[in-house]
Specification:
The chain is of the alpha/beta class. It has 23 helices and 24 strands. A hairpin with a 2-residue loop joins strand 6 and strand 7.
Amino acid sequence: MPKHRRLETGTPWVQLSTTAADWEAADPALLAGMLAQLHLIRAFEETVLELAGEGLVHGPAHSSIGQEGGAVGSIIGLRSSDAVNGSHRGHHQFLAKALTHVGGIRSDLATLVTPEIQEVLQRTLAEILGLAQGYCRGRGGSMHLQWFEAGALGTNAIVGGGAPLATGNAWAQKRSGATDLTINYFGDGASQIGSVLESMNLAATWKLPVAFFVENNLYGVSTHVSEITADTRLSVRGQGFGIPSWRVDGMDPLAVHLAMTEAIQHMRSGAGPAVIEAEVYRFFHQNGPYPGSAFGYRTKREEAEWRERDPLLRVAAEMQKLGQVTAEEVASVGAQAQQAMRAAVDELLEPDPENAGKRRIRPELWPEPEFVDVGLRGDTTELAGARTLDPATAATGMTPSKFVDAVAAVMGRRMEQDERIVVLGEDVHRLAGGTNGATKGLAARFPDRVLGTPISENAFAGLAGGMALDGRFRPVVEFMYPDFMWVAADQVFNQIGKARHMFGGVNPVPLVLRTKVAMGSGYGSQHLMDPAGIFATSPGWRIIAPSTAADYVGLMNAALALEDPVLVIEHVDLYGRADEIPDGDLDYQLPFGKAALRREGADATIISYLSMVHHTMEAVDQTGLDADVIDLRWLDRASLDWEMIGESIKKTNAVLIVEQGAQGTSYGGWLADEIQRRFFDWLDQPVQRVTGSEASPSISKVLERAAIARTDEVVAGIERLRAGMGGA
């Protein structure tokens, strides 16, 4: 018989409940503050549902009615410099944080609503209605509420999507030497999602001050928690990562507060993250003013039993037992909250002159339509005054350098000059500079700023996003291969790329994402893609793609000065290339948005980037075509050198776009469409393209070569172009 020994995690996991003695010992001011916030949030949510019923809320109205106790109990004791973020059902969390920020723990129940509190209620409601005076200028709406000043990092419509961002914010708090902390709120559905679990692992490994707060309301839309997980005690997740965890009745705000107080002590001491599971209940359906029983997935009896545990009733009853309030005073609190919401509504609505008895949003409060794209990216004013140098046109002394050595050298120089820069990714701190030498020497020079991560792109990309949004650091993330962006697609595209615009267009997101195209290296279909086309058609990202070591230095310096997320694409074919960089100069920026004219001609315009620039030059030499060869360098829509492209097209009247990768994710497909829209009158033939095949590259050396473009394919493309010019 084998010998068995029961294993224990050694990590605390407790159920916390209050007693009568806890209520007696609680500060009366704390209980009064809870009562006040609970009623303000409840009145707010009831107003949102009322307006939704009138058709005045455009989009969903995810009510938190019934769940207020978890938010109020966990937030009321926080500092303004502590941070929270949450899910699509996050009005209560946002309001609890904002109300605590402007009012602290208010114990005066007779004058519940100050001007500051009234402003919070009105601006939050305005945001949910999509109005210009909202915290995100109407762009966030119900699901994307953010107010950095109050420590509200932003609620999130992607289930579990906020966990990596919160973890990154906690990293920034810890690195800054503060004792501040971050709370990430999510529901039972998110407790099984990879981004949440990856974030828990990363937070535990690096001992970050972040609380993962599970609002277990039993239902994801209509699916019961017992249908999605074997253990419905969702705080068990902490056991797998060595994170202390608390389970608590979320309908008891004091119990939540006491659990959070213990968790806060743990986090502020530097001991790492915490998990708190609050058992709560949403009184209404996933969205809108009807109970779940109306849709058949809950019984009226179940709903009635939970309503008897309403956190508003619980706090009022306990305070009345203790003689701290009367029934009349509780009624007054509710009446004041409702009056505050009526006042907020009156500022935003007016009678609809075209529909008697109905209301409409005041027309002058809507954002201007011209605001639609404002703030999608920054305005690049941060580059003003920078010293620029274009090695393609400037006469300067040059020093031999391999491309990959220039990659490591310029990063080392910038880290030496800017202590905010942090490099993170898989193996970046090992192997004498990562898997290709691109971080050579950096770990030895900056051991606490070169962070080797777990294999969890979703978590560490999102963590970097949280760091960037915090504003105190400038993360440089390495994806070992660009195909891995699909693993982290939510964080890369839904979170980092959209954050500035979604939250009002003003918050910088200074993040650099480095990756390499490895076509020809034999790594197969899941390692070799060119990501340019995907990123170029995704909002918010800037893209650079250098073909020379000297350009890499200038482009990376610009990327690390921009306040936008920047994708830096490298190519393994260039890493070992014998190249050169300016003598003793690693500090210049390439001029923003300027392409390089690598060869000048009269008969055709050939546009390319990365290693395909060199294949294009070889093909032009072989064919003798008299062509402009444009090396784009900047690839995103907002940074492209349309001036150089336009001047060339108006001269040559023929365009060939050259890239190496697959047709489906092609960068050239988007670019060809844009060129034909802008310069159709000057084109004598359709824009021609050189790409790889439809398939992604295979492991077979023969099939891999057949799937990608190199010099031979460019030669064939030039011949097609010539045929369209009548054989010229």
